[in-house]
Each structure stands twice: as C-alpha cells, then as structure tokens.
Protein: NADH:ubiquinone reductase (non-electrogenic)
Organism: Geodermatophilus obscurus
Amino acid sequence: MGVSETGRHRVIVVGGGFGGLNVTRALDRADVDVTLVDRANHHLFQPLLYQVATGILPPGLIAPALRSITKRQRNARVLLADVQDLDLDRRVVGARAPDGRLLELPYDTLVVAAGATHSYFGKDQLAEFAPGMKTVEDARYLRDGILAKFEMAEIATDPAERAEWLTFVVVGAGPTGVELAGQIAELAHTVLPRDYRSADTRQARIILLEGAGAVLPPFAPKLQAYTKKRLEQMGIEVRLNTLAVEMDHQSITVKGPDGLETIRAGTRIWAAGVQASPLARMLAEKAGVEADRAGRIPVGPDCTVPGHPEVFALGDMASLDKLPGVAQPAIQEGKYVGKVIKDRLAGRQTPPFKYFDKGTMATIGYRSAVADAFGVKVTGFLAYVMWIFIHVLYLADWGNRLGTLYTWARALWLSKNRGNRIIAFETARQEVAEARPPTILPRRIAPTAAPDAEEAIPGAPREAGDAR
Ligand SMILES: Cc1cc2nc3c(=O)[nH]c(=O)nc-3n(C[C@H](O)[C@H](O)[C@H](O)COP(=O)(O)OP(=O)(O)OC[C@H]3O[C@@H](n4cnc5c(N)ncnc54)[C@H](O)[C@@H]3O)c2cc1C
C-alpha cells in the first residue's frame, strides 16, 4: 500500500452517510490521513426525514455537521464537494468545489459510500409532480408543500377546490410511505383541526398506494395485516395492487383492481423506489464489472471492487450477499472496511464481512409501530417504544439525542403540536403555483433516467432497489 508525501497512507472516503462516516470513525487514531468528501456538510439520519417533512423535528437534530462529528478526530478532514470522477488508473478522485473549481484528490485507498437516490422506474417525468424524499432539502420542500396546501384549503371557498387541496396521495407503502401517510393523517386529523376556522382538516383524504398486494412488502404477513388495519383506523385509504400511471400538477391517475381512476389531489409524494448513486455505475464501468438492476456495484466478501483491492464500495450503492438497502448493512460494512484498512497496514488478514441482522421496524402513527427483531414480531405500543429507543440510540451526538427526545415529548405526547411549521408567503406561493397553472416554471427538475429502469411503477419486484 502506498503512502502520501507526509508519509501517511491517504484514505479518501466519498460520502458521509451511515457507511462513510463509520469507515472514518473506525480509522480514528490509525496511522492514515482520512479525507471525507461529501456534497452535503452534514450526516443525515434518513430514517427520521419524514418527521422533518411533517413538522415534528427541525432538520438540525437529524443532520449534524460532519465537521462537528469529526472535530476530535485529528487524522480526518472534511471537504464539501461533489465527486464527479473516480480515476482508478491514476488513483485520483475528481470533485467540484461549491465555486466550480475542480479538486484532484489522490488516494492510496478509496472508499465510495455515496448511497442511493430516487427511482421512478423509468418514468422520470413524474418527479416534477411527485417529489421524493432523500435529502434535508427534499423533506423541507415536502413540508412546505404540505403546510401550504392546508393554508390554501382555509382560503378556498369552493368545497370541491378545498377537497382537492386536502387530498394527499403517497405512492409506495414501504416503511417511508407508511410513516409519511401516518404522520400526514395525524397532522390533519389530530393536530390541525383547532387551528383552522374555515377548513375542516379532519376531512383531509390521505391515500396510500401500493403496487404489491400488501403494505410493508418486506415485512412478515402478521405485521403487514396489523399495519393496514391501523392505517385504516387512522382514516387512511390504503389501495393495494394499485399502480400510479400518470400525473400532473393537479391529479394522479391510478390503475387498480377496478381499472383506471383519476384522483384530483393537491399533493402527491413519491416513496416508491430507489436506485444506487450514479457513482456506483461509474465505478462499475471503470472497474469493468456490471452493475445490477438497481445500479449497484457488486463487491467482494471484503467489500472491495473486483480487480481493485485498494477500492472499497459499500452501503446502498454496493451489492453484497443480497443485503437490503437499509442502515445496518451500511453501518456494519463501514466499521468492517475501517478494520480491513487498519489490518492491511499492520500486515494482518481480515476475515470476510459477516452481517448481523438486527431486524426491521416501522412506525405507523401515534404510539403504534411494527418490529421484527431476532424472529420476534412485535406490534403496537411495545414496538413503538422499541422504535424510539433504537432511533435515538443511532442518532449521532448526545445533544441531538436529548433534543430529539425533548421535541418528541413536546410534539407527540404533551402539546400534540408540531413546532416546525414555518412557511412564508413566497414559499407557499411557489408550492401552490405549481398546482394552479398557468404558473411559474416548476422549481424541481427530474433526475436523469436509469438506463435499465423498469417500465412499471410501484409493484415491480421488490429486492435490491426496494423503497424504504
Ligand atoms: C426517507 C428514508 C427513510 C429511511 N428509513 C430507514 C429506516 O427506518 N431504517 C433503516 O435501516 N434504513 C432506512 N433508510 C435507508 C438508510 O437511510 C440507508 O440504507 C442508509 O442511509 C445507507 O447508507 P449509505 O452510507 O450507503 O448512504 P447514505 O446514508 O445515503 O450516504 C450517502 C452520502 O453520500 C453523499 N454523496 C452522494 N453522492 C455524492 C457525490 N457525488 N459527491 C459527494 N458526496 C456524495 C450524500 O450526500 C450522502 O451524505 C431510509 C432511507 C430514506 C431515504
């Protein structure tokens, strides 16, 4: 393994998510120089993004600055830059700084953990009408949109128009879709009714679409059945075996067991699919291997890229042992890769990566969740307590853990209010202008199509690129 001019081994880590941050931390005190490059300045705890989107948590609590997390790690530095090239021959990472300048970052060991992005299953034009949720900006955008629709319902005098503003359609009933639908229902049916005078927010329609025959497709049938029942008790319309086929700024057309139906809806949210970061495909092409259907790069049992022992790929963008695209594989692979790098420098062998399955869980709404851990299936309040414990435990930083517990106590248990409901006229104007053409140009641009994306939208076989 090579060394830098300073005599230290240079490790470049691309991505400060669950995978990249854990590699960086595992290298604390190692005799290496770590450069952590991310196009965001924070480590995002994605499992709680839906709470930002529904006004429960402020973004800062789930997105601490990478710089602050690593401040005591003397061998690590953080760069805010967008990685655009991985030159495996020259061993150089090419990244753009915020002012556009190109940074060339030479490495001895490269770790790429750039995560995943939305997949619209080949219908990328839908991104304009149904935004997804992957970043803090996405969640804030959704929150602004949801809150603006309630404001418009208060202003509207025509009952049909008001009903339209109060119709929310969530596409995809994986954990993220279930959690979002549940929180929108709580907002509309429990939190907001007394805040509005003309609009009866209890009349809000929340529709959850799922292409498969059950909600939470990867979960056990008992947990799926419980979740569906709870969602329906919360007033959510759950539509199974139903695909979103078309959308515009005012409506969504769905195809279900009863045929085609167009639903007028002020808000449509995409929670249906993911595909690996484009860096996975780039890395695969440069290494001469084939990315899988979800755009992930296959890696060896030690998380290295085939033919390149000095390059590691992990987390959502890598395919290893059919592990799902959730936090635990990324965290465990991150810790493992840090150990491999240290072992190599010390001339030691590391056994292949072994995944320890800690189970899965999802919240449905107030005091209600489902959990499947170590073969035990738990529903209701006990699952909710487990969910709280696990999520607080995995948040970075004690300040954020305490802040989150305090905010939950206030928002969910004591006042039943939401403390993060700030929108201004201009934001609301942008949000609703899209729903009322002729308007200003939409603010969001659809991402580029995945070359091998599928024809159908939700309902496609669920495995690698499954929605969270
Ligand atoms: C809404 C939502 C809810 C979820 N809920 C859960 C849950 O409840 N439980 C669970 O286990 N999992 C959940 N997940 C999945 C989990 O968050 C991911 O599996 C996990 O974050 C993957 O970690 P990662 O390190 O591979 O990628 P990420 O955590 O996504 O990190 C990737 C990092 O790379 C950076 N990056 C990307 N491209 C570039 C580039 N070109 N240049 C520089 N930096 C770049 C990004 O900014 C990001 O910081 C959820 C995901 C989402 C989106």
Q: What stands out?
A: The domain at 124-272+359-433 is CATH 3.50.50.100 (FAD/NAD(P)-binding domain). The chain has two domains: 9-39+81-118+275-345, 124-272+359-433. The longest strand covers residues 32-38.
